Structures are given as structure tokens and as C-alpha cells.
Amino acid sequence: MVAAPTAGPWPGVDPAWSRIVEVPSTAAASGGPAGGRSHRWHVLDNLEQLRARGVEPAGTLLCVHGNPTWSYLWRSLLAAGTDAARPWRVVAVDQLDMGFSERTGAFRRLADRVADLSDLTAALGLEGPVVTAGHDWGGLVSLGWALRHREQLAGVVLTNTAVHPAGYDVPAVLRPALHPALHRWGTTTSTAFLDVTHALASPRLEPAVRRAYLAPYRTAARREGVGRFVSDIPAAPGHPSWAALEEIAGGVRSLDVPALLLWGPRDPVFSDRYLRDLMDRLPHADVHRFEGAGHLLIEDRDLGTPVFEWLAVSAPAPAAPGGPGVVPDYVPMTAELDARRSEAGTAVVDMTPEGPVSLDWAGLVRRVDHLAAGLRAAGVRPGDRVSLLVPPGIELTSLIYACLRLGAVIVVADAGLGTRGLGRAITGAGPAYLVGIDRALAGARALGWPGRRIGLGSPSSAKRRLLGIEHTLGELLESGAREESASGRLDFDVPAPDADAAVLFTSGSTGPAKGVVYTHRRLAAMRDTLKDGYGIREGEGLVAGFAPFALLGPALGATSVTPDMDVTAPRTLTASALAEAAAAIDATIVFASPAALANVQATADGLDAAGREALGRVRLLLSAGAPIPEPLLARLQPLVPAAALHTPYGMTEALPVTDIDLAGIRAAGQGNGVCVGRPLPGVAVAVAGLDDAGRATGESTTVPGTTGEVLVAAPHVKERYDRLWHTELAASSLPGWHRTGDVGHLDAEGRLWIEGRLGHVLTTASGVRTPVAAEQHAEAVPEVARAAVVGVGPAGAQVPVAVVETTPPAPRPGLAPGDLTRSVRAAVANGTGLELAAVLAVPSLPTDIRHNSKIDRTALAAWSGKALGGGGIGTP
Fold it and tell me: Number of C-alpha atoms within 13 angstroms, CB side, residue 80?
């Protein structure tokens, strides 16, 4: 190789990487070996740097760009590979007629490009192990090389690419570039195609970076390969490159090496449907979707970290069974239904304006079986994902257990995430089927959510066409009933215990909602933990003001009902609605969020004698989603005088984890944080200590008083995060533990105290501080309803600021009045020793969507910094 005579330097590129390689060509476009042709390739290669350091690389990462980029795209991987703890040689190529490689004058088809790459790797003398990395159409070329070189291949990395149209139209953004009237001007005569591609980066490319991307393509002659690359898109059978495309697309299914798919969902070219196609062809692949990122993913996000962490673990295997994670006696979620197949007792109740509507156990089992058979007849297969956009009640309960019966994977996301958040969740999960009410199906149609549509009710022909409805729930039930009538019985294969059963989405209170995957075994373990931990017996009545637990009712053998409320807004639950639901099923258990219970207490004066009598029969009240203050529990006790009041701690990833009751809260008293009690049976809790930067770096420990990230191990901890490989890697980086992201400590009696979130830890000049204790002391001031303490300023020198919601509410956001500021500062300083830099007052603190309880400290920290820095007050 010789140094490249190019016009660098380019930002982020070490000049030592840039080389020109003379390569004999075997591609048909070059006349074949008989012609004796050779071509000059430009590559970026960090091998000489590694050799200078005396380092033997662990392998070679072969990076292939698409159109209209060049090897510059991969500069961050070159740097990361050089500096990694286990360095890799990274070779980023400029395909012929692209970048700073030779302009051959020939029209290079897909098959030529695969042959070209093989010629180059032969000239470089690449041996194994080689991991390919490809972007855009470079992904297809890299996979073509991978299929030809299986003896060297150790893995594949793909980002925003496609291997087959799979029945899809050419993306709209590419159509102008393919149109005969615009093609040459858009791709060759002008820089339009390059400009549009560069504009897809988010955030925008720095001017120097954009100039570097344009550097090889300054003239029309230099852009000839760009135009020909576009022309070679095999969009339909009959295209000259279609056969090569088919061969590669089919061959990918046979690749059994580790694979990593990294995706920017905001890509107008290679959208999530292409990701789903790749996942179908590489079902073993690790997947991470970077919400908010797009086509130029490697510019939008740091990919060096996840790629080299993935290379280091080489597609890690699941943790070996052991300890609290073992479930010795697995009983399917549908077992209780089977045991009650002939029972007439009430199973589930809907609260409607006309009064309660109930379904008995025999009717529920029959409905579940018929729906499962109808779904099967409609094409749903085990492992298919089915998104359920149906309000809690008989229909949703029946659909959930029908999917569990069939082995389909339910996808459940709160409508309260809002249209944008809900769409992001559904698109990320990629369901094959979507069952929903009309409003949900209209949103799905308008916003392009994936999944074949199944509607409720009896839509007209016009509505079916408008919403894309292929089947209705009624039709599925009729189909299942016909099958049973014809055959005399309905048989279903029992899903494997460790097959996926559900994708449940987090509340989105700490960033975009994450999909959490549960297997059948882990869902059953959640059921068993609740049943055993709270002594739930068959035949009990469960009122679920927290929707997910209505869905567990049939698995627990409990009659379940959701009160008349907007489940996406827990604060809409009134005492009367709760009492009416309790009366409808003679309830013994109530489950609700703190915000819901706060409104129940606030509306208790509206209860009549019958309502108070119904609530008087409740033996257990559970509140989860956020800590509930002792005073609120104390005020609730007279409404449910016979009930034990419990506040389990947990999260979507593991619920419940610990538990404490009202008496336990009083016994614990005041401390550094909120006491959430002791671990439930079968659950282990520990912490990983914090360093001076507020990072959890220590090993797991149960030493009392050690503040750190809370770790959980239990049979019902989630299987993994869905299509968030790098997030899962971090969450499970301590073998056998799930890292919760919460910060707390264990006391001498084994009780867990929550002190905040890891991302909300304050790193002050005097050390690391957690916010919750300071917030509790601020809330002890009579005028303060709720408080959040946040860090403002650079890490290591943050100053603590309190943001308070006052009673009565502040008329507008701003600095708190002097008297209130002094009272809050004194309360916090006396209780914790923390000196507040400022106190701000707001009419209402921003909270999460699901529970209306978790304060968004991240938003408040950003707002406080802006407000105190003179950037304007505004609304947090």
C-alpha cells in the first residue's frame, strides 16, 4: 500500500489510516482476469497504527459504505477499534467509482461490487476472523462478501440497509433519483443527491464534516459512480441486478454467525419494515434501535461503543440459571382457565354506563378458545407479535389469553404515551397484527403503524376500507366456533416456557418508553410472586385501577374489574367509581396508583352508604408506580377499614420487588429516602456502590448503609429489553442481576430505601448527593405540596436547586417568594445538611404519563438551569 494522494485532512481521520491499494480485478465489469485489469482502491486502515504499538488485533472489521458516502462514514469505528481494550483492525473501503477510489468508467452492478470487494480482501491478505459492517447499499455488498467467505466470517454488523424489497415500493425519497427526467441531474450533474443525504443527519453535520463527505464528489465526472449506483438499485424483477439480490437475500438466512443490527428508525429510506425483514432472515441477531436517529445513524449516535462491546462479548449467551432466577415449578398462565372450564362463577366484569356487564368462567374460556382459533385461521402463528390497542375489560382480557393460548406475543403500550410515544412503541415492537378500537386503527392508518388490522364491533364496508380492517373480533369468534363445531374440539400446542409471551412498555418517565420482553415462564413467575406474596386466593375479587393487574386476574383465579375511569389518566379514578366496581364483584383486593388513590381520597365525600359498605369488605389495598406518602395512606385507611395497606416497589422490568405496609412505614420512620420494605419471597436485592462521578461502578453488596444502584434478581425479572441490545447489555452487566437505574441503600434490618434515580444524582463540589431525602424535608414545609431537588451546572460542580409545587398553586413559574425560600432552605439544610442554591416555584410539577406520580427531574433540571442562567422562565 502507498499513502493516498488525496486532499485531506478530514475531521476525525488520522492521516496514517489513508492508503491506496493496487488490486487485480476479476469483476466482469472490468473485463475479467483475462484482461489483466487492476484498479486503485482507497481505504482507511488502522493496521499500521496497531503494529506501531506492537498490538496484535483480535480480528478485522471490514466496513462497506453505501451511496453517496465513502469510507469517511466509518471514521468513528476506526478510532474506537484502535483504542479499544481489545483492539481490532478496521478496514473501511471506498468502493470503485466512489470516494477516492479509481473511476473505472465501467457500469458496476451488484455482482461486480461483491467481486470487487473479494478482490480487495485478497489483495490485503485478510484472513479470519473477519466481521463485516455495512450501511445503506453497502450492507448488501458486505453480505454478498460474507456469503462467499464463510471460512473467514466471524460475524456481521448492519445498520440501516436492506437485502430485498420484500414486496415494498421503492422509498419515496429515492423515486426522484430514479426518474429518467431527474436521474442524471439529481445524482450526477448536481450535488442534489448528496445534499439530501447529508441533510438526513440529526443533529446537522458540522460544515467541516459535510465538506469532507463532499470532497471525493466535487465534479460531475467524480459523481458518475453515484448516479450509476442509484441506477443499479434492483427495485423489481427483470432488473440486471435482481438475480444477485435474490441470491444474497436468500443466502442470508443460512448465516449462523453472530449478527448485530443497529437502526435509526427516523430513516425515510430504510424504515423499520426493512429491519423487520432482516430480523426475519437473521432471527438470532442482536438488535438495538436508537430512537430519534435516522439514516446516517453513525453520525447521529456513538456506534463505536456498542459495536466494540458487542465484539468483546461476541453475542453473549443468556445467564446460566441459578439462584433467585430459577422457577422450579412452571405452570402456564392459562392453567387457571383450564381448571375452571365448566365453572359458572363470574370471571371478569366491565363497568359500562348501563351498568356492570359480566362473563362467567365457562364463557371466558370458550371466548378465549374461539378467539385463539379465529386468530390462527386469520394467519397468526406462534411467535407473531399482536399489538392490542383495546381498553381494559372483557375484550382485552379475552384477547390476551387467546394470544397466550396460541403462543402469539402480546404487545401492550399505554395510550397515555400520546400519539407520538405510542406510535414509536408500536413501530419499535413491529407487530405482525394490530387489534384496536376505531380511533387506534385510524391512527395506525394515518401514521403507518405496522400490522394487519383487526377491528372491534361491526364496521361498515366503507369503514373497513378506510381503516384497512381485514377481520373483526366477531368474525374471529365465529370462525373459532365453526372450527370447534366441525371438529368437536379445539387443540393448541402448549407454548414453550422460555418462548416470548409479551412485550410490555415502560411509562416513558425516564426517556422514550422501552419494550420489556417477558417469556411465558417469567410472566407465570410474576403471577406466582403476587399470589404467594399477598396470599391471593382463588375466587377473590380484584379491582384494578392500575390496568396491567386486571389482566392478571384470570391467571390468579380472581374475578377482575376495571373501574369506570380513563386508565391512561389515573387521576380520573373517583371514590364512587372505585366503590361501584368493588360492589360489582364483591371485591377483596384493590390495586391502584398513588395518583389514583389521591383522587379517591379527595372525592371520598361523594360516597354513599352502599359504597362505603363495598369498600369496607376490601382486605388488601396495593399501590404501586411511585412511593405513596404515609399521610395519604393514613387518610385512605378509614375508606377501607378492614384492609391492609401495602405499597410494593417494582418496575415494568420486575414487579413486585419489595413490599411494605402502613405499619412498616411508620416503624421505619424518616431516613435517607423512601423506605419501600423488604424483598418479597424469591427476590434478592443488593446495591452497586457509586463513585465520585455518581456512576455505579462497584460490585454487588448488601452492606447496610451503602448507597448505590439498586440491583434485583428474581424469577419474574424481564427476559430482556426489546430491540435495545446495548441497553440490555448495560442493565445486565453484573451477571445474575438486573440494574434498575434506581439509587438506594439497605438498612440493618434488610429494608430497601430509595433515594432517587441514577440519572438524578447530584455531583456537587462536596461530593455525591441523592435527591429524595432533601425533597421529603422540603415537602414538610406547609406551603409545599410536592418538591423536586435537581442539580444545575457541570458535573462535579453542580449546585442543588429545589423546585416546588405550592398550595395554593403558584400563579406562574419563577423564583419562590422570600419567606418560602427561607423555609424550604432551612428545612432541607436542617434535615440533610444540603445547602440549596435557589428555590423555584411552579404551578405544577411535570410527571410521567402512566402513573401521574413520578416527577420528571430531568426536565426540571434543564428548565432550572435555563431559568437561573437568564434564558427565560417559561414552563418546565
Answer: 17
- For residue 382, is the peptide bond before it cis, meaning its omega torsion is within 30 degrees of 0? no
Residues 358 and 289 in one domain: no
- In a shared domain, residues 409 and 349: yes
Q: Does residue 859 lie in a domain region?
A: yes
Return the pLDDT at 873.
64
| 436 phi and psi angles, rounded to 5 deg | -160, 165
**Looking at the domain assignment, is residue 417 inside a domain?**
yes
Instruction: Give the integer Cα–Cα distance in Å for 617 and 292.
Output: 49
Closest CA to 434 of 392, 505, 380: 380
The reported pLDDT for the residue numbered 74 is 98
Cell 412452571 locates to 330
Predicted confidence at residue 325, as pLDDT, reads: 44
pLDDT by 10-residue block (mean), the chain, 876 residues: 58 95 85 68 96 92 97 97 90 98 95 96 93 97 97 96 72 66 85 95 96 96 95 88 94 96 95 93 96 97 96 56 50 94 94 92 97 98 96 93 98 85 94 96 93 95 96 97 94 96 85 92 95 92 79 91 84 94 96 90 94 97 84 94 95 94 94 95 95 89 96 97 96 94 96 94 93 93 93 93 93 92 96 94 73 70 84 63
Say how far apart CA 405 and CA 499 lie, in whole Å: 12
Edge to edge, the sheet with strand 814-815 lists: 784-792, 799-806, 838-842, 814-815
Cβ within 8 Å of residue 179, ≥6 positions away = none
**Residue 694's Cα: distance from chain center in Å?**
24
789 and 824, same structural domain? Answer: yes
Please report, for the domain that includes residue 682, its CATH number: 2.30.38.10
Q: What is the per-residue pLDDT for 647?
A: 94
Domain at 196, CATH number: 3.40.50.1820
CATH code of the domain containing 449: 3.40.50.980
Distances (CA, A) of 680 to 324, 531, 650: 11, 11, 11
**Interatomic CA distance for residues 571 and 599, integer angstroms:** 6
Q: State whether 166 and 273 are in the same domain.
A: yes
d(CA 796, CA 767): 8
DSSP state, residue 417: G
Whether 775 and 754 map to the same domain: the answer is: no
> What CATH number should be reported for the domain holding residue 854?
3.30.300.30
* Contact status, residue 663 vs residue 682, Cβ threshold 8 Å: no
* Spatial separation of the C-alpha atoms in residues 538 and 815, rounded to whole Å: 55
What distance lies between CA 654 and its chain's CA centroid? 15
Q: Does some domain include residue 653?
A: no
Same domain assignment for residues 267 and 296: yes
Q: Judge residue 30's burial from the number of C-beta atoms within 10 Å of its C-beta, 0-12 exposed, 13-18 middle, 19 or more buried.
A: buried
Helix (H), strand (E), coil (C) string for 688-742 = EEECCCCCEEEEEECCCCCCEEEEEECCCCCCEECCEHHHHHHHCCCCCCEEEEE
| φ, ψ at 104 (rounded to 5°) | -85, -20
Residues 275 and 338 occupy one common structural domain: no
Domain shared by 96 and 233, yes or no: yes
Distance (Å, rounded) from C-alpha 190 to C-alpha 220? 7
Domain of 834 in residue numbering reads as: 761-876
pLDDT of the residue at 510: 66
Q: Is 552 left (phi over 0), alpha (psi -120 to 50) or beta?
A: alpha
Number of domain units in the chain: 4
pLDDT at position 856 is 79
Q: At which of 472, 487, 519 does a domain end?
A: 519
**Strands 738-746 and 708-713, sheet pairing:** antiparallel
Please list, residue by residue across 572-607, b when 16 or more beta carbons sit within 10 angstroms of its beta carbon and e when fewer do: bbbbbbbbbbbbbbebbbbbbbbbbbbbbbeebeeb
pLDDT, residue 709, reads 97
476, 499, 519: which is the final residue of a domain? 519
Let me know if residue 628 belongs to a domain.
Answer: no
Half-sphere exposure of 707 (CA within 13 A, CB side): 22
